[in-house]
Each structure stands twice: as C-alpha cells, then as structure tokens.
UniProtKB/TrEMBL annotation:
TM segment ranges: none
Domain Glycosyl hydrolase family 13 catalytic, residue spans: 155-537
Protein name: 1,4-alpha-glucan branching enzyme
Organism phylogeny: Eukaryota, Metazoa, Chordata, Craniata, Vertebrata
Pathway connected to this protein: Glycan biosynthesis
Organism this protein belongs to: Nothobranchius furzeri
One Gene Ontology cellular component: cytoplasm
C-alpha cells in the first residue's frame, strides 16, 4: 500500500513534467523565468519590467528615475495575471533607470488601495540606516564579477562547515562577504572541511531571524556587501576545492508586506494559500501554495538563479518537516509508524514540489547536493524520484545533537548508556545518507548551550590557559568535547557538519541584536581571535578537529558502508567499531582505565595509532606511545574474525576518557 503511494507520487511528478513540457517548452526555460520577470536591460538599453499580480487592478512603476511619479509609468495587463512595461532609454541612449537607483511597484487594488511594493524578483534590496523598510535597488553595475574557477567535483565524503557571514568576525558588528573571503575561508580550508553551508544569504529584513524569515528571495543580503562580493567569496571557495551550499528557505516566507511577498497584489493569497492554511502559527509567517503554476515558476527559478548567477553547488532545504505535512509537525510526535508518513496529513503538493526541485536540479547539475532538514524521518526522503523518493542526497540526523544535550543535562558520567548512544548514532534508514552532527547553530543560540558550555561552563572564562594547570572540570570537558565529535563523525552518518566556532569550543552563545539585549552585537560574533593566542586551549580543540577531518579525508570512513560495532560495554563504558579499515576505540569510563584490553577486528595485520585524543597537541596527557605496533591474533572476538590486544589505557588522575583511532596496515 505504501509502495503504491510512492508510485502515485512519481506519476504525479511525471504529469507535472509533461504539463511543463507542453505549456512552457520544458523545465529548462521555465526555471529561467528570472530572465524575464523583474527588470531587464535590453540590447537597445530599454528596460523591460514584468510582474505577476493576479488580484491587482493596475500596476505602476515609480522611483528615483521619474522623481517618484505615481502614474507616469503604467504596466500593461497581460494574460494570467501578468503585467509588463517597457521603459525606453534616455535621449543619450543610456538606460532610464541607472545602476544603484531606487524603484517601487505601485499596486492599485480593486478596493481602491495604493500599495508600495518591492518586486518579488528584485535582485538587490537595501535599507537606509534609520529606516525599517527595505528598498528595491536596480543592480546593473558596469562591471559584473566573472567567475574564474570551475565548480569542484562532488565530494565522496561530505564535511560541512555551517557558517553565517554576518557573525564571522570577532568584532561586534555585521561582518562582510569580503571579510569571510579573506579571513574565514583559509581557516575552513585548514580545518579540512570540503563544503560550506552558508546561512542567512537570502535577504531577510529582520537580522535576528537568523535568515529564516525571507523577504526578498532573489536578493543576496546587502547587509554583508554587494552581489559581486558574494560571487567572489564562492569563486575563492571553489579555488580551494570547497563546495558551497545555500541554506534555502522555501518552506515559508516573512509576513512583511512593503518589503516582502505578503499581499503583493493586495490579496491575502497570491503566492500563498489564503488563511488559515496559508499561515504558520508558530513561525508567524506565510505558507506557499505549491499547487500554483506561478508559485512553482517563482520557487524553481529561484533555485536555478542561485545555481547560475552565484554558482552555488546545492542547497540545504530548511523546514522540510513543515512542508511535508498539513500539521507542519506542530504538536506531533513521530514514532516511525508508516501511517504517520502516508496518510491524509501528508501535503501531496509540497511533496511533488520537492520531487520536482530535486529532479530538475540533479538533471541540470549532476553534481548538485541537496540536504533536507526533516525531523520526522519521512521514508524515501533520500531515495531517487524514479523510486518514488523525494530525491534528496542527504538528510540531517537531527536526533544526534538532541541525544548529546540530553546526556550532558540529565546523566552522570557513570550512568551514560553506551547502547543507547550507539543506537541513536546508527538509527537511520538503510540506503538513505545522513549528515551527522554533535551540534549546529540551534544549540549555539541564546537560551541553549553549546556542548563546550554544557561541559565546562564558567571554567571556560578562567581555566582555558595552558599557563595554569587544568582543573578536573576543564580536563573532563576537553576530553569529552573531542570524543563526542569523533564518535559522531565516525559512527553517525555519511556526512558530518559543524557550526562555525564550535570546532574550538567557542566560549559564548549566539544572540543577535534585538530589543531584549539593547541591540547589542556582543554575542553576534565568533571570537576567532582566541585561536591566535598561543597559550589558550581553544587552539588544542581546533587542532583535534582539523586532524579528525584530515584523517577522514585520508581513510574515507564517511563514504564507507556503515560501521560494524563490536563492543558497547556498559560496565567498562567502552565502544569499539571498525569502518573503512579503521578501528575506533572509545573509553568513556570516568575513573577506570584498562590494561591488555582485547578488541575484535576483521582485517588481520599490523595496526598503528593514527589519531589519539590524549595527545598533548590536543590538550591530552600524552600517555600513549605512537610507535607501538599492534598485531592481530586469529582469535575471533565479538563477532569479528580476528582480535588485537590494546595495552595502552593507563589510569588518569583526572579522567580516563580517551579515544584511540587505529589504522590497519595490510
């Protein structure tokens, strides 16, 4: 029955593609609608304007070019709610609307209202310092940025650095695209990440929304700089072999009217469902009508725009759970029962849109990467559309960070349940790739705590200098910070994600300027300067994160089949598994170390230490001899054909927690 529903969805997708072919000449032209909608300079320097406003009585163009005359430039009404206008060039043959000048669409409604609006297709919008409302600015610079470097190949092992341009500086201000290019990209490259997930790029009037209340879908946020500077950022990332994903928000839109999509043509629908279906009560935002032809044109062209104009390499789709269900996941728990995923509560229009988006993206750009943020566990989310799946490449393993926070909040070290940890890290749908992460931006936000803060709290302000002895709290926190990350990296998925700054245990939470904090930027920054101070322990955590990624790059466990877990010993608090010819051994016991500890391995041969969390370089105690060679014995153990005796777990006066990563030399 459920397979039949997948088949029906695929048939609906094929029907939609067939209609696209018939009505628009195929999806290639349809998804390039940004070339005709909005404003475009023609070869004779005339300007062509086009909008979709089905409920409007009349449309006029006004702006600095005509001294804000309300009626001198009327649009002509066309079929299907379209409006068009051609503005001829000036007498000197230059465009009538100059680069960097302001425009507005004036909408006359059937009720006699006059509404000032920004074109939904606006490519650049800015806000005056003392103004609340954003302005549509015509972007037509004399020199456009030209990309130099080709897109890197799609990584087999995806290591994602989740980043926000505006907070990417130690200074209490909004940082720039240029700052990110010059100061942050080299750090990301050094850390061994091969993918950047850029948040808050699509223009959002409210900075504190973290970029999730979009007002202008085609505009790169001007608070960080110009469109050309963002293009350069991506181009430089490509030169480093790093792919760049856009955090795209097609699940909802801001309620703003004057500088958003809401009530663009004066109606309560247009791009959205009419209320109540068209409103998200928890997010206080509008919900798209995915069954509307023009909404499909708008959203699919939006994806194509970011791929073509800025050369992004793919997308992380935000809020997918809200899209999948009519209940939007509000007040709903998911047990994994198939009735939760294939009933009447599922929004077929949204599903078909996501299938359409993934099908088009992967057809046009075979190396495109799409990641779904879904907490529900929807089956076949990451299966090909031809199989009745939604076509995503990866899904976020959202249960993992919740589990780590729960453990740190609720359990003493001696009560940690190894089996439960392993279950959470491995509980994923077979054949559907997951992005594992110990924490993301969600845990960094004010009101929550990062893992480093849960582990070390106020000690991070007083005991992070190597010039003074480590307290027991700092020692425990440093070791567990590394172990949690590597265990998640090695066992949790087919990709790994880290939020900027968390790799070195950033000492403070994230809070954007708002009324509640007196518009302060103090917490809306990342203190990379801490890494430039030689005697701070943040450098040690940074070094471990770097070498963890570099070790994965060498051995490729993320691209390997799932790990074989040979031990999850509750009494010893030990977890052992092997993946990609690499043997992982974790000792989570708070006060017990082991001599001559036997662990199972599959591949016979000689093993050597390749990564050791107890190394002094990483803030450990340097108790393991890295010249030691471990030879297997043909003694089956814990489900493996061979075993090896590990005899280097000496007792530690503070905390015996440590991890050893061994690689077999065949």
């Amino acid at each position: 029955d459920n397979l039949m529903k997948c088949y029906i969805l695929y048939e609906l997708l094929k029907k939609q593609l067939s209609i696209l072919e018939e009505a628009e000449g195929g999806f290639d032209q349809f998804t390039r609608s940004y070339r005709s909608f909005g404003v475009h300079r023609q070869s004779d320097n005339s300007l062509f304007f086009k909008e979709w406003a089905p409920a409007a009585e009349a449309l006029f163009l006004t702006g600095e070019f005509n001294n804000w005359n309300k009626f001198s430039h009327p649009y002509t009404k066309k079929e299907f709610g379209k409006w068009e206008l051609i503005v001829p060039p000036k007498h000197d043959n230059s465009p009538a609307v100059g680069h960097n000048t302001k425009l507005k669409v004036l909408v006359h409604t059937k009720d006699g209202e006059r509404l000032y609006r920004i074109s939904p297709w606006a490519k650049y919008v800015t806000r005056e310092e003392k103004s609340v409302i954003y302005d549509w600015v015509h972007w037509d610079p004399p020199q456009l940025y030209s990309h130099i470097h080709p897109r890197p190949k799609k990584p087999t092992s995806l290591r994602i650095y989740e980043a926000h341009v505006g907070i990417a500086s130690p200074e209490p201000k909004i940082a720039s695209y240029t700052n990110f290019t010059h100061n942050v990209l080299p750090r990301i490259k050094d850390l061994g990440y091969n993918c950047i997930q850029l948040m808050a790029i699509m223009e959002h009037a409210y900075y504190a929304s973290f970029g999730y209340q979009i007002t202008s879908f085609f505009a790169a946020s001007s608070r960080y700089g110009t469109p050309e500077e963002l293009k350069q950022l991506i181009d430089v990332a490509h030169s480093m072999g790093i792919v760049v994903l856009l955090d795209v928000v097609h699940s909802h839109a801001s309620k703003n009217t004057e500088d958003g999509l809401n009530r663009f043509d004066g109606s309560d629908s247009c791009f959205f469902h009419s209320p109540p279906r068209g409103e998200h009560l928890m997010w206080d935002s509008r919900l798209f009508n995915y069954s509307s032809w023009e909404v499909l044109r708008f959203l699919l062209s939006n994806l194509r725009w970011w791929m073509e104009e800025y050369r992004f390499d793919g997308f992380r789709f935000d809020g997918v759970t809200s899209m999948l269900y009519h209940h939007h996941g509000i007040g709903t728990g998911f047990s994994g029962d198939y009735s939760e995923y294939f009933g009447l509560q599922v929004d077929e229009d949204s599903l078909v849109y996501l299938m359409l988006a993934n099908h088009i993206l992967h057809t046009l750009y075979p190396d495109c990467i799409t990641v779904a943020e879904d907490v529900s566990g929807m089956p076949a989310l990451c299966r090909r559309v031809e199989e009745g799946g939604l076509g995503f490449d990866y899904r976020l393993a959202m249960a993992i960070p919740d589990k780590w926070i729960q453990i740190l909040k609720e359990f003493k070290d001696e009560d940690w349940n190894m089996g439960n940890i392993v279950h959470t890290l491995t509980n994923r749908r077979y054949g559907e790739k997951c992005i594992a992460y110990a924490e993301s931006h969600d845990q960094a936000l004010v009101g929550d705590k990062t893992l480093a803060f849960w582990l070390m709290d106020k000690e991070m302000y007083t005991n992070m200098s190597t010039l003074i002895p480590m307290s027991s709290i700092t020692d425990r926190g440093m070791q567990l910070h590394k172990m949690i990350r590597l265990l998640t990296h090695g066992l949790g998925g087919e990709g790994y994600l880290n939020f900027m700054g968390n790799e070195f245990g950033h000492p403070e939470w994230l809070d954007f300027p708002r009324e509640g904090n007196n518009q302060s930027y103090h917490y809306a920054r990342r203190q990379f300067n801490l890494l430039d101070t030689d005697h701070l322990r943040y450098r040690q955590l940074y070094a471990f994160d770097r070498d963890m990624n570099r070790t994965e790059d060498k051995y490729g466990w993320l691209a390997a089949p799932p790990a074989f877990i040979s031990a999850k010993h509750e009494g010893d608090k030990v977890i052992v598994f092997d993946r990609a010819n690499v043997l992982f051994i974790f000792n989570f016991h708070p006060d017990k170390s082991f001599q001559d500890y036997r662990v199972g391995v599959e591949a016979p041969g000689k093993y050597k230490i390749k990564l050791d969390s107890d190394e002094v370089l990483y803030g450990g105690h340097g108790r393991l001899d890295h010249n030691t060679e471990f030879f297997t014995e043909p003694t089956p153990f814990n489900g493996r054909c061979n075993s090896v005796m590990v005899n280097n777990f000496p007792r530690d006066t503070f905390d015996s927690s440590k991890v050893v990563l061994l690689n077999v030399i065949l």
